[in-house]
Design a protein that fits this description.
globular, 8-stranded antiparallel β-sheet, 156 residues, 43% strand
């Protein structure tokens, strides 16, 4: 069994995944993890783990670790509708990144101006067992978390 430490891709208030106001994320349909309510400004979203950029969209990315743990970072809810507005990518699909490396610059005020929720779900792709994801104390307490701080541990 491998343990994967997943870091917060952005700073903000850590939120349990079931509290995300989107049933696809809240019910773990994509996978289990946690979320972050980001500060209201232009911020950098970083790689939550080291690995390869498996998928890169303006509003979301998946990093695949050497242990084949895929971690999805989704910047805001329903932000695919923005067609990339408010997001600037700094890497390409297929690139190898290290945990903490900037992947996307995220314009949170522009997302809110479009009437969308800027919360950032972070999930282990295709994880079907909620018990395999152990949230950090910040998540269980709903506390502030720094970008690069421990968000949760995934057991595969």
């Amino acid at each position: 069994m491998s343990k994967t430490q997943v870091l917060a891709p952005v700073a903000g208030r850590a939120v349990p995944l079931q509290d995300v106001p989107d049933p696809v994320f809240a019910q773990g349909m994509v996978g289990y993890g946690a979320a972050i309510d980001p500060p209201r400004g232009v911020i950098d979203a970083v790689a939550p783990v080291s690995g390869k950029i498996l998928k890169l969209l303006p509003h979301a990315y998946v990093v695949m670790t050497a242990d084949n743990v895929g971690v999805l970072v989704h910047l805001g809810l329903d932000t695919v509708a923005l067609s990339g507005a408010g997001f600037s990518t700094h890497v390409k699909e297929g690139d190898t990144v290290t945990a903490g490396q900037v992947v996307i610059t995220y314009d949170v005020p522009s997302v809110e101006a479009a009437g969308l929720n800027p919360i950032v779900p972070v999930v282990v792709m295709d994880e079907r067992e909620a018990g395999n994801v152990m949230p950090s104390d910040a998540v269980t307490a709903g506390a502030e978390i720094a970008a690069g701080a421990a968000l949760f541990t995934a057991n595969k």
